[in-house]
Amino acid sequence: MTEYLNIAGNKITYDVTGEGPLVVLAHGMGDSRHSYRFVAPALVAAGYRVANMDIRGCGDSSTGWDGYRRTDIAGDMVALVRHLGGPAVIMGQSISGGAATIAAATAPELISGVIELAPFTREQAISLGDLIRVKRYRAGFTQLGMTMVSGSLSSWKKYLDLAYPAKPADWAGELARIETTMSEPGRMKILQAMCKTSPGDAGAQLPNVKCPVLIIQGSLDPDWADPRAEGEKIIADLPAGLGQLAVIEGAGHYPHAQTPDQVVALSLPFLTRTLANA
């Protein structure tokens, strides 16, 4: 069932399915809740109430928000959990992984756990040596940079081609869906704005997180020269004992759509442990 949450005159669109403990799904920039099309039904079948949201400015949510930082997205997450009745575990990908960190740190009474997929949760340092050494990283950096500067849909599609080392069976239709949405007025400008945000606000909140955190990285993610090392750095900045890391071999920046069975298999034990104690 598709529902809408009004926040300061703007609209967050989300679907709610299933019964049981609450899990909120949040996608990355330039995407939509449809990216969880494989994961959401599996979580519902496992006994969870799943709220799959379009983050601000994306999918069927409205444009015209006054900011697109992780802190802004985190506020929407907290508002949605409060509206639906927490506590909840948030599964957030890319920019929403960082936002989920902020939500957990600032609303510990509502957020009982976080699963971060390919998250941008720390301030990023660009290494010239890594760009020269790792072709995959160099290519991803180039296409994202061109998207940010020029707003080129072609560059975004080339980035997505890199970010999905293996394509889902329905990829042609999904890419057409993304292209149609990103061609709507204002959508590309929002993607560019999100590209320009810094993950520093999320990184600053890592020491304040009090709940368990699962980081899932893809070994072939083009956003980092070494995705495992990035995940390890996030865990090192969390309070001791809260974080765990899993790396899916062969996955890129969208493990929930490329390797959904593995994401679900990693997530279910975490959800059982985390929500049982909520």
Strand order of the largest sheet: 1-2-4-3-5-6-7-8
**Overall pLDDT, averaged?**
96
The tally of beta strands, per DSSP, is 8
Q: Tell me what portion of residues adopts beta-strand conformation.
A: 15-25%
Quaternary state of the chains: single chain
Shape: globular
Helix content: 40-55%
Radius of gyration: 17 Å
Weakly predicted, low-confidence segments:
none
- Profile the largest sheet: 8 strands, mixed
Which structural class should the secondary elements be placed in?
A: alpha/beta
- What's the tally of helices? 12
How far the N terminus sits from the C terminus, by CA atoms, comes to 26 Å
Order of helices and strands: EEEHEHEHEHHHHHHEHEHH
Question: What report would you give on this structure?
Answer:
The chain is α/β, with parallel strands linked by helices and 278 residues long. Helices cover 46% and strands 18% of the residues. An 8-stranded mixed β-sheet has the order 1-2-4-3-5-6-7-8, sandwiched between helices. Helix 3 links the parallel strand 5 (88-93) and strand 6. It is globular and about 45 Å long. It starts with a strand and ends with a helix. The model has no long low-confidence stretch (mean pLDDT 96).
List the topology elements.
Elements: E1 2-7, E2 10-17, E3 22-26, H1 39-45, E4 49-53, H2 70-84, E5 88-93, H3 95-106, E6 111-117, H4 128-133, H5 135-150, H6 153-163, H7 171-182, H8 187-196, H9 200-205, E7 213-218, H10 227-237, E8 243-248, H11 255-258, H12 260-276
Parallel strand pairs: 3-4, 3-5, 5-6, 6-7, 7-8
Antiparallel strand pairs: 1-2, 2-4
Helix pairs in contact: 2-3, 5-6, 5-8
